[in-house]
Amino acid sequence: MGRTPSISPDTAADDPLGSLLAHPALWRGRSLARTDTHSTGYPTLDEALPGGGWPANGLSEILSPQPGLGELRLLMPLLVRFGQQWPARWVAWIAPPFEPYAPALASAGVPLERQLVVRTDEPLWALEQAIESGACATVLGWLRSRPGDALQRSLRRLQLAAQRQRAPVFLFRERTVAQSASPAELRLELHFRVGGARLELLKSRGGRRGAFDIEWTDTPGVTHGTP
Fold first, then answer.
1. Which of 15, 18, 113, 132 falls between 20 and 30 A from 33, CA-CA?
2. Parallel, antiparallel, or unpaired: how do β-strands 186-193 and 196-203 relate?
3. Peptide bond preceding 77: is omega within 30 degrees of 0, i.e. cis?
4. What is the Cα–Cα distance from 131 to 92, expressed in whole angstroms?
5. Is the CB of residue 80 less than 8 Å from the CB of residue 109?
6. Domains in the chain, please, with CATH?
7. Phi and psi dihedrals of 48, rounded to 5?
8. How far is CA 26 from CA 23, 60, 160, 164, 178, in A?
9. Which of 7-11, 84-88, 159-163 has the lowest mean pLDDT?
């Protein structure tokens, strides 16, 4: 496990309660703890998320009625930004149910040469290997596993791996698992509408309560074909 940051004795003496509330190991229902984030590229969503963006070191789960309805639009601004970073790092796509649509990705500004698509019947194992490699700017994974103790253990391993490697990891899952427990840093439910989406934060460290709407950017769809 990663080493937990310590609180400076001088800081604690000056403001012991403030130091405790700011500690990144503290998790409250409406936490004020600081956290590293990446902007989502959607101002309304950034405002709703604690820290102003996607968690930079851990799991985020995006739940939707079924895959392939445009859920990747949420991540397109981030994928474009990662594609511009140097040195170059991979974006790993683990077990996507549809073929990533290369022309749409390229049109959006996502460099195709940095995309790594992994086809596997064991996505949890592949996800962990991709995260632990340290070679990926981010890892995207699609899970169809039913909730259970074995899955929970695997998800905890992924969360710890993401924290160790300081990597944002995104899991796409069906909305039917919304009532099951998850070790993810962030969990949101996605409802599609014309021109955008309605989002609801199911789990966050101090994020906005209630549903809210966002408008899509001009990014076209990025999946194509059949599962």
1. 132
2. antiparallel
3. no
4. 9
5. yes
6. 37-224 (3.40.50.300)
7. -80, -25
8. 6, 18, 16, 17, 24
9. 7-11
Q: Using alpha carbons, select from 116, 118, 96, 117 the residue that is nearest to residue 227.
A: 96
Residues in the chain: 227
Q: Which two tokens stand for residue 36?
A: 């590293």
Is residue 171 within 8 A of residue 184, CB to CB? The reply is yes
The DSSP line for the chain is -PPPPPPPHHHHHH-HHHHHHH-TT---TT------EE--S-HHHHHHSGGGSEESSEEEEEEESSTTSSGGGGTHHHHHHHHT-SS--EEEEES-SSEE-HHHHHHHT--GGGEEEE--S-HHHHHHHHHHHS-EEEEEEE--PPPSHHHHHHHHHHHHHHHHHT-EEEEEEEGGGTTS----SEEEEEEEETTEEEEEEEE-SS---SEEEEE--S----EES--
Cα–Cα distance, 214 to 184 (Å, whole number): 22
pLDDT tens profile 43-66: 999 999 999 999 999 999 999 988
Integer CA distances (angstroms), 213 to 115, 178, 191, 199, in order: 29, 19, 9, 6
User: Which two structure tokens, joined as six digits, stand for 212?
Assistant: 């809210």
- pLDDT bin (cut points 50, 70, 90) of residue 210 is confident
Closest CA to 132 of 157, 95, 96: 157
